[in-house]
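Please, structure for the following, as tokens.
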Amino acid sequence: MKWVCYLIRSASADRTYVGITKGLHRRLRQHDGALKGGAKATRGKGPWELVCCVADFPDGRAARQFEWRMHHPAKRGRGLRGRLRNLEQTLTMERWTKNAPPADDMRLRLLWNGPRPAFFRCPPRVCEAKIKRRDF
């Protein structure tokens, strides 16, 4: 299974969370408290729903570099719209960190759990699709 960077939002509060994993379904169950584990930041603030994920990172290092950039954008936005702007900005960068491999060398997929927001512009090098059960 390949690494994914995912964006979730709380159904009960105006909160979002970005993380990485190799097992998306298991990780989402951890965030909801159905399984042990999960991030301290999401505990007791769910239920959480998947907004989208960037899939097919070649290794954990590249996924961590992408996640780091999502947490440290040049311009920080608030709420879900701000997170999606950060994602849009990160996907258009040549490199996510100075030591990261060139983004053009990766064949990433951006998978949406629902409709893509109208304001979101995805760069041509990233394949966009809706999430299907067999994706994970």
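The chain has a mean pLDDT of 88. The beta strands are 3-10, 16-21, 48-57, 109-112, 127-130.
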